[in-house]
């Protein structure tokens, strides 16, 4: 059933004529579309690193039509497509943040432009904007790019017509995204109405002969000046509070219950859609069902499930009406062609931008009984002088998808016999997707096997829009219903629990929903680009000329419902398999007859801010538990060499806070670190062991590290010296490693330390820390 909302019409109101025209244009009568020249327009600009901001922007542009609007979509770096200097329609910015708070590559130019000091404070006086910032609170400088753009727009006189949304990928973008987009349409119409009446007043003032325009009461009036930045001080997102009008929240659910349809009847109001979103008006598909059914879908048999799982839900969700996202419009035509011989392409497709370097050494740093396996790789980069790096830099490793998973996926799609066929991907002529184009990472003239191996991230967690599209390709009604639940607003918690938190892949999902048979084109449309994995350099060129070291843990994903056996991380598992034959284990001598050394494709990612102070007299503190110690090994190797070359210079104190589980199992770089202490390169080494709790070990730990369990405890134990270095000696503090827990705990501990040492309140301490960050004296390089 299609739910189409009919906008109310009011006599004699010029400003709503467009609404009526658009309503008519939405009705396809005898295949004739009414002309719709007067649809109001707005502009959508995005800056996107991994494609999320782009797909949200595209979704908004697609949905515009059903709200009687025309969206002009453009990437921020395509400035030939838009002109903000003259823009008189509302502008929506959707921007993500990357790295250490940097703008995405395709927004860099724009950010640089608006930061120009020569721009006057009324440069954007005419501009009305709304902004959605995407970020991840696990990382430093949450939503920094969005905040920077917002700050500059306001400094340049632009007016905000709708509160900024800060969507947090750390907890799920949809928490903020859904209500933000639901409220957006009303806000755009309000802004258009206000802008039109402002113009009318202006024109009337100028000409004095226009008939009076009455604002239309059916168009929500959104105040342009009352919305402010409501981001939490500590970088948390504003959650659903972006739209204060509670009608939005209740509106969607009441519309759902008022328009229930049977499961088999599910149709969104429009074929246009956006990922992971329930549309508020016109785009809501409402679904209801009766009691939960059997997981096998056997006709007439009703088993009440005892526990919810990936494939099975419990009341109230199983009985609830659902708001599902609109169906994403298909946009690719994919065909497979049998060819005699495919040109032999092996390895990554963008080889020109990569260096193929041999691995010259591989060592396991942890003992066999350690919980995590940490490995050190040395690469021989001597043939690539342009790969000269500084400690603090990282580099990308390009890895393929696992051959067995690619084969399984081909089988699951019934395409195993066409694995060597050539894939032709083109744009569908009739696609309704706005701004659709063939993704740049899909090369032409490659085999299906190659496409799945090197181009698409087949391990990526399917987004809700993908699940929504899978519904259409699922035969069994129970499985269909469960997929609807997982992509619905009501099933958000189940989606997080059973799909997102388990990092489920499309292959695992298809195994759990056997009646789902998506076409190849759907996978190509929804699977993102296979991303390279970055690693921090764990060496200095001064100590190891022509060599680059890095250290990593082999990531392990445990078994769960939907994944019968655990699996390793894609890149770390691949590297582990690759180097296994040449691996040197702790305490074992290197074999003299080493087998052939494998090569890997890498590229450098310079990090200009995560650098040891250029002035050697500046004291600095390093916090790097586990593999987070990697860049600090580089810092210390560099410092040791500098000290040897220039012993007369003044060197500031250096502190390293390291932590691991057990002194004897996973104390990485122990000998090297103790050597740095002996040579005077490292002034203070503070190590803690979180799981050494037998008495003897605890004693050892206590002797060297006070009573600390985690790095932050050791920071607290040395609070006075640390705050002294930071607040009185102009020193720096670096944090590297796990983003999810450690970096937050360290941040909170630093706030506590500043509170105590300076005798200030929480807010003041947070401001002090933010100041250090701003001055680039508190730097993070975190991941996870
Ligand atoms: P995937 O198959 O991609 O699975 C990733 C999943 O594992 C994600 O859900 C993520 O939450 C989780 N995960 C990511 N990293 C870890 C981790 N280290 N431990 C446990 N779970 C994890 N990693 C290092 O080990 N050493 C480094 O020096 C290092 N430097 C980095 C520098 C930068 C700038 C960045 C952004 C990341 C860095 N990482 C480092 C992380 C690294 O890029 C990979 O994410 C990690 O090795 C997992 O890759 P994978 O393909 O094996 O896992």
Question: What descriptive keywords fit this protein?
Answer:
784 residues, alpha/beta, 21 helices
Care to give the gist of this entry?
By secondary structure, this protein is α/β, with parallel strands linked by helices.
Explain how this protein is built.
- This protein is an alpha/beta fold.
- The protein is 31% helix and 16% strand.
- It is built from 21 helices and 24 strands.
- The strands form six sheets. Strands 1, 2, 3, 4, 5 and 6 form a six-stranded parallel β-sheet that branches.
- Residues 1-36 and 206-303 have low confidence and may be disordered.
- Bound molecules: flavin-adenine dinucleotide.
- The site of flavin-adenine dinucleotide has 22 residues, from β15, β16, α14 and β24.
- Flavin-adenine dinucleotide (FAD) is lined by residues 394, 459, 503, 533-536, 550-553, 555, 569-573, 627, 630, 781, 783-784.
> What value does the Rg take, in angstroms?
29 Å
Major sheet details: 6 strands, parallel
Fraction of residues in β-strands: 15-25%
Helix content, binned percent: 25-40%
Number of helices: 21
Low-confidence stretches: 1-36, 206-303
Distance between the termini: 43 Å
Summing up helix and strand content along with how strands pair, one would put the structural category as alpha/beta
Question: Please, what is the average pLDDT?
Answer: 81
- Beta-strand segment tally: 24
Shape call? globular
Attached small molecules: flavin-adenine dinucleotide
């Amino acid at each position: 059933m299609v739910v189409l909302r009919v906008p109310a019409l009011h006599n004699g109101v010029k400003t709503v004529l467009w609404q009526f025209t658009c309503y008519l244009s939405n009705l396809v009568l005898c295949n004739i579309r009414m002309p719709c020249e007067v649809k109001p327009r707005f502009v959508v600009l995005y800056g996107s690193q991994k494609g999320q901001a782009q797909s949200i922007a595209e979704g908004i542009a697609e949905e515009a039509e059903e709200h009687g609007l025309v969206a002009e979509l453009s990437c921020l770096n395509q400035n030939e497509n838009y002109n903000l200097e003259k823009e008189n329609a509302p502008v929506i910015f959707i921007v993500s943040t990357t790295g250490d708070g940097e703008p995405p590559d395709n927004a860099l130019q724009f950010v640089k432009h608006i930061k120009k000091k020569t721009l006057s404070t009324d440069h954007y006086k005419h501009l009305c904007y709304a902004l959605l910032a995407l970020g991840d609170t696990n990382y430093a400088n949450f939503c920094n790019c969005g905040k920077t753009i917002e700050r500059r727009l306001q400094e340049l006189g632009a007016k905000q017509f709708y509160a900024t949304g800060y969507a947090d990928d750390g907890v799920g973008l949809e928490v903020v995204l859904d209500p933000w987009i639901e409220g957006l349409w009303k806000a755009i119409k309000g802004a258009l109405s206000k802008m039109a009446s402002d113009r009318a007043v202006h024109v009337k003032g100028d000409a004095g002969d226009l008939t009076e325009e009455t604002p239309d009461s059916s168009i929500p009036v959104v105040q342009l000046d009352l919305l402010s930045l409501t981001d939490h001080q500590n970088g948390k997102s504003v959650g659903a509070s972006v739209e204060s009008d509670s009608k939005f929240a209740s509106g969607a659910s009441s519309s759902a219950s008022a328009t229930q349809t049977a499961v088999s009847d599910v149709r969104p109001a429009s074929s246009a859609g956006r990922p992971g979103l329930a549309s508020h008006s016109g785009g809501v598909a409402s679904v209801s069902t009766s009691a939960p059914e059997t997981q096998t879908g056997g006709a007439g048999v009703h088993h009440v499930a005892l526990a919810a799982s990936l494939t099975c839900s419990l009341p109230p969700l199983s009985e609830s009406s659902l708001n599902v996202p609109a169906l994403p419009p298909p946009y690719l035509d994919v065909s497979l062609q049998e060819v005699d011989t495919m040109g032999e392409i092996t390895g990554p497709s963008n080889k020109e931008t990569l260096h193929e370097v041999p691995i010259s050494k591989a060592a396991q740093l942890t003992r066999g009984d350690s919980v995590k396996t940490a490995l050190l790789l040395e690469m021989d980069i001597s043939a690539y002088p342009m790969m000269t790096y500084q400690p603090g830099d990282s580099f990308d490793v390009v890895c393929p998808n696992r051959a067995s998973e690619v084969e399984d996926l081909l089988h699951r799609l019934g395409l195993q016999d066409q694995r060597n066929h050539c894939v032709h991907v083109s744009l569908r002529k009739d696609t309704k997707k706005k701004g659709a184009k063939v993704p740049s990472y899909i090369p032409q003239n490659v085999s299906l096997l190659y496409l799945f191996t090197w181009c698409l991230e087949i391990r990526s967690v399917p987004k809700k829009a993908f699940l929504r599209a899978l519904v259409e390709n699922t035969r069994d009604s129970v499985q269909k219903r469960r997929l609807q639940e997982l992509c619905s607003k009501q099933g958000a918690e189940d989606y997080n629990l059973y799909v997102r938190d388990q990092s489920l892949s499309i292959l695992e999902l298809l195994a759990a929903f056997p009646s789902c048979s998506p076409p190849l084109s759907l996978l190509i449309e929804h699977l993102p680009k296979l991303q390279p994995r970055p690693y921090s350099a764990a060496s200095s060129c001064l100590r190891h000329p022509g060599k680059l070291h890095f250290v990593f843990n082999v990531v392990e994903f445990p078994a769960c419902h939907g994944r019968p056996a655990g699996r390793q991380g894609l890149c770390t598992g691949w590297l582990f398999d690759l180097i296994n034959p040449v691996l040197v284990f702790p305490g074992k001598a290197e074999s003299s007859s080493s087998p052939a050394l494998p090569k890997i494709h890498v590229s450098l990612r310079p990090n200009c801010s995560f650098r040891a102070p250029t002035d050697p007299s500046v004291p600095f503190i390093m916090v790097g538990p586990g593999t987070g110690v990697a860049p600090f090994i580089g810092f210390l190797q560099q410092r040791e060499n500098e000290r040897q070359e220039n012993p007369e210079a003044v060197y500031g104190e250096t502190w390293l806070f390291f932590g691991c589980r057990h002194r004897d199992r996973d104390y990485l770089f122990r000998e090297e670190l103790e050597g740095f202490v002996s040579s005077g390169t490292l002034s203070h080494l503070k190590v803690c062991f979180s799981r050494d709790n037998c008495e003897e070990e605890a004693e050892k730990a206590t002797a060297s590290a006070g009573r600390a369990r985690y790095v932050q405890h050791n920071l607290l134990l040395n609070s006075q010296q640390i705050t002294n270095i930071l607040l009185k000696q102009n020193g720096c503090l670096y944090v590297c490693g796990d983003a999810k827990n450690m970096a937050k705990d360290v941040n909170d501990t630093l706030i506590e330390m500043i509170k105590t040492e300076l005798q200030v309140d929480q807010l003041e301490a947070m401001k002090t820390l933010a100041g250090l960050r701003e001055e680039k004296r508190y730097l993070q390089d975190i991941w996870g």
